[in-house]
Amino acid sequence: MSSLLLLPLVFLLSLFSLSSADSTTLSLSLSTTAVAPPLTNPWQRLNHLAAASSIRAHHLKHPKSNTSATKVPLFPRGYGGYSISLSFGTPPQTLSFIMDTGSSLVWFPCTRRYSCSSCNFVGVANISTFIPKSSSSSMIIGCRNPKCKRIFPNLQCEKCQQNITSCSQFCPPYVLQYGSGSTSGLLLSESLIFPEKIVPNFLVGCSIFSSKQPSGIAGFGRGPESLPVQMGLKKFSYCLLPHRFDDTQVSSDLILDGGGAAAAYTPFRKNPNSSNPAFLDYYYVTLRKITVGGVNIKVPYRFLVPDSAGNGGTIVDSGTTFTFVENRVHELIALEFEKQVGKNYNRAREMEARSGLRPCFDVWGKETIELPQLTFHFKGGAEMVLPLGDYFSFVDESVLCMTVITRNSTAGEVGPGPAIILGNYQQQNFYVEYDLEKERLGFRKQLCR
């Protein structure tokens, strides 16, 4: 990544011919994200998603520093995320973005020279890019523009004279790292276009180089550069269609500044005052306990509540597929499932090794399948009682595996970063509401359509 930081700014600017900028409810369709990797066997696909969820969790835990409703279609995608389409520029250019509550900057692949390494798994030839030269409203963000400070809060504009208001120095290139890749580019001021409204002077990243990130990302996190904050939203909500791990064009709605009422709410926690600014993007909630079949899993306190450095605690993340828990927590959950289920089903250890998921159970020849209820209990009394399909999945016709994942680490280790990351697979067929005005997360079971 450091090599990207050393790229000459003049080379990036050569891709532009732009000036410098120095100064209702919407619904979008959600779809499950971009083109599926070429995996044919179910266990291979689950192994890929388990690995991707673990990598994403590692990134979230170890991030590198750096009124009327609008409905947007939200599509489930083959590689485990959910995407939306957004339009930027004058005239509008429409692109696909991964909807991500675990980061804040909105960015798109940009210019005809956009380069993405290791992107063949999603068909790099089909990447759509934003062309700033074709938009009359595109402006490069200047160094003294307050929007530049959102990404670079400690930046000193060394080439700008203190007593002169005008300055030709541009905001420096950004470099962002995600669990699955990275991206870098320049910040633009652009118009975000909806059918019902236009959001002018929207801060957006124009990425020139990426690794394993062929699609843009729409950051819905808590940072000042996120889409909800820039639009001044009081809340946003979604209902995630179940994953089919293909790219069937069916969608549900992402609702901006609107939606129904949730059945239960839990307050957002104050983000830890960590030295890592990425932790400020996350939506922390307080998970009180986890139960399996009504039996309380005795999760140590240090995993449930973050310390001042940001180690431990629970976040909600739409960009992670399978829920991640630290090794010690996973052991406790898996042990309780085996204790309650083991007398009826045998462990399928070979499939565990192949899929990367555990525990797995062989249910061959069983007319009915009964598994204990998995429930997350949050502060304020909110209980997320998961449907069976949200925490166990068939990997072949006779084996079921739990879709809560962990990493190989010391069993009692906490951190760095959140200990529990509630992924989108466990949010399927739930109405989920981020109430930004009242600082709370709401949810209720709902058949998403």
Question: What is this structure's SSE topology?
Answer:
Layout: H1 2-5, H2 9-13, E1 19-21, E2 26-32, H3 42-61, E3 70-76, E4 82-88, E5 93-100, E6 107-109, E7 115-117, E8 139-141, H4 146-151, E9 174-177, E10 182-193, E11 198-211, E12 216-219, H5 227-231, E13 235-239, E14 252-256, E15 264-267, E16 283-285, E17 287-292, E18 295-297, H6 301-304, E19 314-316, E20 323-325, H7 327-341, E21 346-347, H8 349-355, E22 360-362, E23 374-378, E24 383-385, E25 392-396, E26 399-402, E27 404-405, E28 420-422, E29 430-435, E30 440-445
Parallel strand pairs: 1-8, 2-3, 5-12, 6-11, 7-11, 19-28, 20-27
Antiparallel strand pairs: 2-4, 2-14, 3-4, 3-14, 4-5, 4-10, 8-10, 9-10, 10-11, 13-14, 13-29, 15-30, 16-19, 17-18, 17-23, 20-28, 21-22, 22-26, 23-24, 25-26, 29-30
What does this structure look like?
The protein has 8 helices and 30 strands. The protein is of the alpha+beta class and 449 residues long. The strands form 4 sheets. It has a 17-stranded mixed beta sheet that branches. A 5-stranded mixed beta sheet has the order 16-19-28-20-27. Strand 25 and strand 26 form a beta hairpin. The N terminus is likely disordered.
Helix content: 10-25%
Radius of gyration: 22 Å
Low-confidence stretches: 1-7, 34-39
Number of helices: 8
**Strand share of the residues?**
25-35%
Largest sheet: 17 strands, mixed
